[in-house]
Amino acid sequence: MADSRVSPAPDISNTQSDLADCLRIFPLDSIMQEFPTVALIIFNKLSRLARHYVLRLLSVTTQDQSIPEQIVGAWSKNHDEHQKAMDSLEKTFKILIRTSQRGINLNEPFRLSMQAVHSIGSDTLTVSQNRKKPTDEAIDEYANVRWDNILSILTSIAVAPANSIIPHLLASCKFKSGNSLSGKGFNFILSPKLNQVWQIVVILLQKYSLEKRAFLSQLAFSTVYRAYKLSAVSVENREILNDFHQLGLVYISEKKDAFYPTSLIKGLLSGDESEELEPESNGYLVLESNYRLYAYTDNVLNLAILKYFSKLLYKLPGMTVMTITRETVQEACEEGITAENIITYLRAHAHETLKNSKGPGLGGAGAKHLLPPVVTDSIRLWAIENLKKILVSCKYIYRQNYNYLEF
Question: I want to staple 186 with a disulfide (CB 3.0 to 4.6 A). Which of 262, 337, 338, 339 is the partner?
Answer without folding.
Answer: 337
